[in-house]
Amino acid sequence: MIPAAFDYHSPRSLDEALSLLKQHAGDAKILAGGQSLIPAMRFRLAMPAILIDINRLNDLRYVEERGDHLAIGAMTREHALEDSSVVRRSYPLLHDTAVVIADPLVRNQATVGGNIAHADPANDHPATMLAYNATAVAKGPKGERTIPIDDFFTGLFENAMADDEILIEIRIPKPAANSGGAYTKLERKVGDYAISAAAVQLRLDGDKVAEARIGLTNVSAVPMRAKAAEAELVGKSISDAVVEAAGKAAAAECDPSPDLRGGVDYKRDITRVMVKRSIQRAVARAKGGK
Amino acid sequence: MPQLDDRKEPHSELAEGVSARVPTTDEVQIKTPEKICGMGHRKKRKEDPRFIQGKGNYVDDVKLPGMLYMDIVRSPYAHAKINSIDASAALEMDGVLAVITGEDLKAAGDLHWMPTLMSDTQMVLPIDKVVYYAQEICAVIATSRYIAADAIEQVYVDYEPLDAVVDPFEAMKDKVIVRDDKEKKTNHIWHWEAGDKAATDAVFKDAATVVKEKLYIPRIHVSSIETCGMVANYNKARSHMQIYMTSQAPHAHRTVFALVSGLPEHKIQIISPDIGGGFGGKVPVYPGYVICAVASLVTGKPVKWIEDRSENLQADSFARDYHIEAEMAADKNGKITGLRVKTLSDCGAADAAANPSKFPAGLYSICTGSYDMKAAHVEVDGVYTTKPPGGVAYRCSFRVTEAVHMIERMADIMAHQLGEDPADYRLKNFIRPDQFPYKSPTGWEYDSGNYEAALKKAMDMIDYRTLREEQKQKRAKGELMGIGISSFTEVVGAGPSKDYDILGIKMFDSAEIRIHPTGKAMARFGTKSQGQGHETTYAQIIAEELGLPSDDIEVEEGDTDTAPYGLGTYASRSTPTAGAAAVMASRKIKAKAKKIAAHLLEVGEGDLEWNIDRFEVKGSPDQAKTIQEIAFAAYTNHPQGMEAGLEAVDYYDPPNLTFPFGSYICVVDIDKGTGEVAIRRFVAVDDCGHIINPLIVEGQIHGGLTMGLAPALYEEIVYDENGQNLTGTLADYLVPTAVESPKWELGKTITPSPHHPIGAKGVGESPTVGAPPAIANAVVDALWHLGVRHIDIPITPPKVWKLLRDNGVTD
Prior knowledge:
The complex is a heterodimer.
Chain A: E1 7-9, H1 14-23, E2 28-31, H2 37-42, E3 50-53, E4 63-66, E5 69-73, H3 78-83, H4 85-90, H5 92-98, H6 104-107, H7 112-117, H8 125-132, E6 135-140, E7 143-148, H9 149-152, E8 153-155, E9 158-159, E10 166-173, E11 179-187, E12 194-205, E13 208-217, E14 224-225, H10 227-233, H11 240-253, H12 264-286
Parallel strand pairs in A: 1-3, 2-3
Antiparallel strand pairs in A: 4-5, 5-10, 6-7, 6-10, 8-9, 11-12, 12-13, 13-14
Chain B: H1 48-52, E1 68-74, E2 80-86, H2 88-91, E3 96-100, H3 102-107, E4 113-115, E5 121-123, E6 129-130, E7 136-142, H4 145-152, E8 156-161, H5 168-171, E9 188-195, H6 197-205, E10 209-217, E11 220-221, E12 229-235, E13 240-245, H7 250-261, E14 268-271, H8 287-299, E15 303-306, H9 309-315, E16 318-319, E17 322-330, E18 336-348, E19 375-384, H10 400-418, H11 422-429, E20 438-439, E21 445-446, H12 451-462, H13 464-476, E22 480-489, E23 501-502, E24 505-506, E25 509-515, E26 521-525, H14 534-546, E27 553-557, H15 574-601, E28 608-611, E29 614-617, E30 620-626, H16 627-636, E31 647-652, E32 661-670, E33 677-687, H17 694-714, E34 744-748, H18 766-783, H19 797-806
Parallel strand pairs in B: 1-15, 13-14, 18-19, 26-27, 33-34
Antiparallel strand pairs in B: 1-7, 2-6, 2-8, 3-7, 4-5, 9-19, 10-17, 11-16, 12-13, 12-15, 17-18, 20-21, 22-32, 23-24, 25-26, 25-31, 28-29, 29-30, 32-33
């Protein structure tokens, strides 16, 4: 568990980081919280020639509402989401997620941007951001651009950013009135990746579900939305049968791999249960509950 | 509360302990004042300041001038022929000094093989073939840890893969022979039996009820926070080998090193510094240790080898791996009459456990547990597979964990089968207090016990009858709640020299106490703490016996140049053996102290009596000499004709083992949607005889319960069909944390050992032994009405989920 040799840069500004990245494009990896990259390097699964450590970019650490969205700086530590009063008050799905990512030691170091940019379907934020319909903001030599989250995850550990771009911000739309969300995760022990987890964000119009987005964790090769499950909800009044139908749809459309966490049938059924529980809590919250 | 006062003051009768009548109490007795802090005081550990401040000194903290570093090339196959090893590219790297192969060790005097502690043999480095995944192939010696790690990637090994045999039942068919170095071409290693077969068969013939079950106790790993390692420092000029080593048994290891290497034993010094957890994993001699020592011999420089986490999880110290078929018989009144057990022990590629020589299956035959029955018969067969050595240790008291899991599961199955409450069923079948000392059907003599008292206390603490009512109501609503009990009997403190040895060395242990002129003391032991708090516990024992404040006693272990010879710390043996030696050495000192006191007070020895920290003239307590005054006199004013000084050594050979016990009750709730088991409450009542330091005992129990929770719900080493370890990192080998651990609710009863000089028993492993069946029994109890009879540990959500869905339960 000794990493291979690498060169190390610690830029003091985003521009400096971008210019280093341009100079070393293809050979360099960005080091954010390091909670995925460093273990991969210690096992020599990743052997980048150059590390560009962006931990000095304190300008990229913020969680604040700006206009119609919540802006999260990419270098925001996960624990900052746990502690944020605006997240706690208005973004319960995000707060649910923040408190079940790995363990407190990891959350003190891990970053929101790293969790998303790594594009690991086992990470928790991709499902949450898919459910929120978030937007990623990337910066490169040509300036800033926004990428809808639905377009962001392009493959296993692959995202829509170019080699010379850095993820700088995540934007979550402010939930409308009568909205609610929840994240439910089953893990083998604290710190483990999910066996399955479901992020649900929905809006009620009277008794009926007006909008719903569902993201799933660790049951597909690429972070995925459960669109069939969403379709089971939208336009319908919430009942046990509707919730069960949505859960079953998610179980059918996900694509888990068997591993030590369980077999395919098990993971599909757990996905059904996670989706149901998230819907039930999201609905309760949309109606003003906790 | 009579038991401490009942102890006779052993002035001259050194070996006298508490009387054979041992009433049970639940109050820790304290005889000494706070400033002396003898037995029973909740003294904070003397070790804590250095550990809390990060001032411990572990093997990896040792840095010697000119030190080199070793890294090991390991096999990617479980079973393969080695055609060639090409280390030329590695040797060309800057900073690489040597690559050591099996051929090199062979040339150095047949060091490519070594004996195991079970008198089997094990490869140090292979020449012809490898027999387990991650087996050591060769070692690189380099000037830095990083160069060594880079260089192992530059060693090219040409393997020819052979069929692996991972399943021990398959191995018994001898289609693939693991150890073709042996004369007999079979994987079967040994057969071992205990108990009376004919009597047992007769009991089963007459039985009114028989229950049978197959149980697998999976392979697990101790995963101590500190991995194994060594710094070997050979001084050519002195022909002296100094070794810093993660060792639970430094003296035994020194002797093994002397026998294997041919170096004279007085030229080998093993220092076991602070050790970050052992649990039996630091008892065996691993190939890495031998290679590291050879590397220092060859280079003449200090060489450091520290395993990384994955090496530790893949190659060292696996435990359990027992495949058990058990049958229990009961008469028409439901009374247990017999037990019949057949077990296959998956030993991996070498029988490299550390059991006493006569006990290839450890103390597994304790498996009749806490129940009085007419007959029992136990058979165990050891078998080789292409896996690293198994059955070594995991805080298990030499296989008692497996025995207890089996008997506690079987008793529970029998109770359920008969429709009896599992608590009442145990109370009905326990060995009664008046049956002690109790001769078990497999030949043990239990020293003392009061099982009923411990279980009743646990039932009171948890409010057992109310929980059963709640369970009934919940079940009516379709909710799944279970209550599990484990009333275990442990057997620790190996052991009496007539039966217990490791490689022929008898399993005594030792203490040496020297009292300095100013009344301060140094005490050294043949054991070696790995976190148990020996420096505190032993000091309190000596304080109790001699009245010296425990803070005035420096305790040292682990340096073979200074400590008296002993067999080390494992299997909960330190207090039963070395703790007893501390008492006996103290009493030798006290006998001399009495002569000095008599001289100083100008009275006869018969006129003196001991009072906490001094000898007083009977009837005239003002005339007294404290132990400190006596110590000063021992160097300044001792009687003519008496040797100066005040010191003693004792090598304690225990007359019997000690039999701690306890009753644990666990309450679980099961999530119908996910199959998750949530432990709502866990009450643990332990009885380890007299308690030396309640704080340390409680700490041991907390840690032990957590290490019992681990295999019950989380930990298992898993191999694929090719013998690859799928759980070689802590991402997949699930060591529970504080988050997974329930609130442990502790209680105690105190039933002293009649033969131990201060009535103490071991405790470190009791909770690891007792906890898993309490948890398993609780889960099965929650599901019994669905038709579930048994679930193998670890009881993971997928296993429970399948049982639920198979029985139509969902969410």
